[in-house]
Amino acid sequence: MKKINDKIAVCIMSGGMDSTLSAYIMHSRGYEIIAVHFNYDQRTEAKELASFHNICEALQVKEKYVLDLDFFKQLGASALTDRSIEVPTDGVEEGVPVTYVPFRNGIFLSMAAAIAEKEGAELISIGVVQEDSSGYPDCRESYIHSMQNAINLGTKDETKIEIDMPLVHLMKSEIVAKAIELKVPLELTWSCYQSEDAACGVCDSCRLRLNGFERAGVTDPIVYA
Fold first, then answer.
1. Closest to 139 (Cα-Cα) out of 125, 147, 151, 129
2. Which residue, 28, 45, 142, 156, has most beta carbons within 10 Å?
3. Cα torsion for 106, 110, 116, 117, to the nearest 10°?
4. Domains, in order of start, for the chain
5. What are the pLDDT digits (tens) for 120-143?
6. Which among 107, 103, 116, 108 has a CA at the least distance from the CA of 152?
7. Model's pTM, two decimal places?
């Protein structure tokens, strides 16, 4: 069912800096935001969920979905969901790191597409970053375009969904600068892969985030151990 505002964006929001900025960009373009968050038994699930709710409040989101995907725990195969695999802390890994969750973004986009079709949304926003990321294959622009094609083939003929990835070619420093420009509450976001009280500062995600703030000449407002 179409809502009053016919510009509706389903925004996949982890509680992290990238997906939060993506949602703020959609808001700045005049879209009504439907926020979607996934709990998948990741190490920082509680912190990410709290961040998501706080960001939605700051963004004045009226409708949100929180979906539990507990099968990821059974699947394992990632340091984020399998506690027997340690999160690397020696520097950003080459190739596909052990923090990669198999086909996670594909599953997220599939669920978001179902919501978008139900809600009459024309757009899905996802904060993938190809240029300055941890080497995840499901963050590639070509892959996201392929998912868009598959989603439109697998939905009703009148359903036309675009997947927007506004950060895909940005460096982390550019993401920080854009977030500050749009007054994104970066203090509410969380990027650490392994800690919930204070960010560890040494996992891949923390290193990429800290490097982005340093290059942008800005102090990261979250607490680090």
1. 129
2. 45
3. 140
4. 8-216 (3.40.50.620)
5. 999 999 999 997 667 899 999 999
6. 116
7. 0.95
